[in-house]
Amino acid sequence: MSSGSRRGFLGTAVAALAGATIAPGIRLIDLAGARAPGEKASARVRWGMLIDTNRCATGCTDCVSACNKENGLQDTGRPKTDAQWIRKIDIKELKTGRQHSAPVMCQHCADPPCVDVCPTGASFKRADGIVLVDRHTCIGCRYCVMACPYKARSFVHENLSAQKPEVPRGKGCVEGCTLCVHKVDRGDGTTACAEACKAAGHEAILFGDINDPHSAISKRLRELPSRQLRADLGLDPGVRYSGV
Amino acid sequence: MLRFTGVFLLTLAAGLAFAADRVAKPVVVIEKPGRCVEDTALMRRDHMKLLVHQRDRTVREGVREKARSLSGCIDCHASAKTGSVLGAEGFCQSCHAYAGVQLDCFECHAAKPARAALGGAR
């Protein structure tokens, strides 16, 4: 087979594969987010979230509790030093008195300042845009905590026990929202906070691949006006807000 | 001279016997034999190298193959009695205690498989 005809054959095969329907309404290409266990995270994907603050209910903390439960963050009764991966913030527009609420977590920046300042390379961005801490190399210096403009990182001050097998955590390391990386790698296609928000009937948090023009999040981003928090810093966050 | 050597050898033998008894031998209970990802000799010598290699691939690249993952080891090697790889007779801890090698993995990682960890510690 000449190289030209092989290429032609591959092209046809790929086109046939992409168009193949697995079940009515589900095409193979829709499942692109789910990787095989041996496959690396790919830069073709960029995971992100769209938070619609018009749908987010003041006083509701379901996303925070779901995050704590999913990742095994325990309440020690000392909230000042407890790790916190999502904060619910209340915003009031002083002129009009309009009040609304929004969850703020790691914004998974394309150019993360936490990665710039990390002296050991423990704070890093994965190929698919998820910003993580490699606890094996984190020395707990907390430079990243200071560098993050979103106050998204926490430090673990106390010895922990009964961690979840898929979310290892320990004293002396910095941590933050992982976009439920263990769920993403499993191919769940959602995060604990987005699931909880949906279950509560708000659907204020939408998780998805912002690089894929056919994903639900990309479609919503095209329709709704949305903003990046502190867009002036030019960090290109993967988490976008609508209605702020 | 000969007598002196004899006394010396006796003392040495007594010393060795004492050394053998001083530290309890590790308790190695293989719950599910014959299913390890590599042969025993290689696992005894090099398990830490396999784990370090796999940890970087998992954390940095998102590759989560069950075969060489720490959670894969724990799922198979957790004690049937305690459900854990730690404890005096735990698969990991008993050997590490004997060899005098610090076992840091479980400062952060769960020492029990997913189901036992959910039902047990909380």
Describe this structure in words.
The complex is a heterodimer of chains A (244) and B (122). Chain A is of the alpha+beta class and 244 residues long. Chain A folds into two domains: 33 residues; 202 residues, Alpha-Beta Plaits, CATH 3.30.70.20. Chain A has seven helices and eleven strands. The radius of gyration of chain A is 20 Å and the shape is globular. The N terminus of chain A is likely disordered. At the A-B interface, α5 of A face α2 of B.
Keywords:
heterodimer; A: 244 residues; alpha+beta; Alpha-Beta Plaits; 2 domains; 3-stranded mixed beta sheet; 11 strands; 24% helix; B: 122 residues; mainly alpha; 57% helix; globular; disordered C terminus
How do the helices and strands line up, and which of them pair or pack?
The complex is a heterodimer of chains A (244) and B (122).
Chain A: H1 3-19, E1 21-23, E2 26-27, E3 47-52, H2 62-71, E4 87-92, E5 99-104, H3 113-117, E6 123-125, E7 131-133, H4 143-147, E8 154-155, E9 174-175, H5 181-186, H6 192-199, E10 205-209, H7 216-223, E11 239-242
Parallel strand pairs in A: 3-11
Antiparallel strand pairs in A: 1-2, 3-10, 4-5, 6-7, 8-9
Helix pairs in contact in A: 2-6
Chain B: H1 2-22, H2 40-61, H3 70-77, H4 91-99, H5 105-108, H6 114-119
Number of strands of chain B: 0
Rg of chain B, please? 20 Å
Percent in strands of chain B: under 5%
Q: Give the terminus-to-terminus CA distance of chain A.
A: 58 Å
Helix/strand class of chain B: mainly alpha
Which architecture of the largest domain in chain A does the CATH hierarchy give at level 2?
A: 2-Layer Sandwich
What's the total helix number of chain B? 6
Instruction: Give start-end ranges of low-pLDDT stretches of chain A.
Output: 1-5, 8-21, 25-30
Strand-and-helix sequence of chain A, N→C?
HEEEHEEHEEHEEHHEHE
Give the overall shape of chain A.
Answer: globular
Q: Overall 3D geometry of chain B?
A: globular
Distance between the termini of chain B: 68 Å
Main interface: chain pair and counts: A-B, 30 and 22 residues
Low-confidence runs of chain B: 117-122
Q: What is the mean pLDDT of chain B? A: 82
CATH topology of the largest domain in chain A: Alpha-Beta Plaits
How much helicity do the residues of chain A have?
10-25%
Q: Oligomer, anyone?
A: heterodimer
Tally of domains of chain A: 2
